[in-house]
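Friendly challenge for the regulars: who can give me the structure tokens for this chain first? No prize, just bragging rights.
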Amino acid sequence: MDWEFDADVFQWRGPAPFFFVSTPPEVDDFLHAHLGDLTYGWGVIPARVGTGASEVATSLIPRRGVYLIPLEVALRRTENIDDGDRVHIRLHVGP
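First reply, four minutes later:
Bragging rights claimed.
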């Protein structure tokens, strides 16, 4: 399944900072409805995520009823993405 949407980047500050975007409600609804077919454990879902000219393999992380898409350092640097930016996301889950 494929989606495209715009989302705001936010930072989670831990021992090392992590940057994420949240999936929109229509994506969350689909993921929750098909979780058993998509997850490899703990509700985590493998995915391909793109923004700009870049695309990476990652995993969607469940958090408080939504899914978070981690934005890896290489992706952020290549696409010049920082905390608070609004980005256009291409998301693919499933075979």
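The first helix runs from residue 25 to 33. The CA atoms of residues 5 and 89 lie 5 Å apart. Your move, everyone else.
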